[in-house]
Amino acid sequence: MPSLRWLACSLLVALAAAAEDLSEEVLIGWKGETYDAGLTSLPKSTDASKNEAALKDIEAKAKAALEAEEGKAVGKANGTLAAAAPRTEPWVETISWNPRAFIHHHFLTPEEADHLVGIGSKRVSRSLVVDAQTGQSRLDDIRTSFGAAFGRGEDPVIAEIEERVAEWTHLPPEHQEPMQILRYVDGQKYGAHWDWFDDPVHHAAYLAEGNRYATVVLYLSDVEYGGETNLPLADAIDPEAQSPKGLSPCASAWGISVKPKKGDALLFFDMDIMGSVGDRRTLHTACPAIRGTKWTATKWIHNKPYMGEYDPLAAAARCADTAADCPQLAAAGECEKNMARMVGVTGMCRASCRDCRQCAAGDVLCQRYNMKSLVRARAMRAAAGVQAAAAAGQAAKA
């Protein structure tokens, strides 16, 4: 195993190579692409002794951190150390490279998840499948859930979630199919299937506008037992770490399984990186929800714009009020109290709520900026601060 000094020296060499530009782009939604281990604070001196002293200091700190981690591990093994507070901030976990699959923890806020469940519960009906022989939708025991479809950008919450999905996947929102909200209860499931199509009868208009390139599953509720998403042909990056306890029989036999956790999102790419061939390893199953109700929202994303009817940038460019009493409503605090109605791409009082920028014609960067609600962003930051403070208080008590 290489020494810590060797690792530190290697980092120093890398830093020197990038001396002209120390900033590094971090992909949206990701954590951990950059970590300088204190090397950016090294003295810019030709004095070798000063550099050596700085490297020794870094090495000592690294050793201390390693010993602290080892001490925590020993304490947990002996049952003498309290469990660490769970992470509450959004972060992305890579679970497989074959197929490409990722979990975005805390992708949705609890309020967003509850909003989708609330509107979904009013519309759900028995889910259908597409018959590979006829191309028609029909009932099938392979899929026993109940579901409902929603228009793209149908309300401000949905529109903003669609934009965040686009940022995470690096695929434009106009490539997305309408959101589908699903409910599973009392053993309901969706048996093993692929989301992309290669059958000869699938309606031509659908495939002419591209095949399903990626799938994002948003988990809107916790499930007491069952309800996992299983990818039986996936190769786990760390099989031991990716074998959680308490899985249902459906989820424990093969591949990788993801437990539903309210607010989390699962992304896997259904096709090869060029979007030309379906990936057979994306075979997946929605395991039976044995105890508890499972709610999800699915976004299927195509390798081309989907059906060509949705222009989210045009909607985002309109920074205006659509109701005459918007100034009065804003003064009364409705911008924050009733965000689902007032702000966001389809909000009726964006201008009065100062929720957007006025965009010049053709200013795509400004329009993309407006696809997010400034009011909701401030509220989410405030809520995250309260959560972090609460977690810090619990950690201090432990």
TrEMBL record:
Entry-linked Pfam families: 2OG-FeII_Oxy_3
Catalytic activity: L-prolyl-[collagen] + 2-oxoglutarate + O2 = trans-4-hydroxy-L-prolyl-[collagen] + succinate + CO2
Cofactor: L-ascorbate
Keyword set, alphabetical order: Dioxygenase, Iron, Membrane, Metal-binding, Oxidoreductase, Signal, Transmembrane, Transmembrane helix
Subcellular location: Endoplasmic reticulum membrane
GO molecular function list: iron ion binding; L-ascorbic acid binding; procollagen-proline 4-dioxygenase activity
Name of the protein described by the UniProt record: Fe2OG dioxygenase domain-containing protein
Cellular component annotations (GO), alphabetically ordered: endoplasmic reticulum; endoplasmic reticulum membrane
Species of provenance: Chlamydomonas reinhardtii
Top-rank taxon, per record: Eukaryota
Membrane topology per record: Single-pass type II membrane protein
ShKT domain ranges (all copies): 319-356
Signal peptide: 1-18
PANTHER family in UniProt: PROLYL 4-HYDROXYLASE 6-RELATED, PROLYL 4-HYDROXYLASE ALPHA SUBUNIT
Domain Fe2OG dioxygenase: start-end pairs: 175-303
PROSITE patterns hit by this protein: FE2OG_OXY (PS51471), SHKT (PS51670)
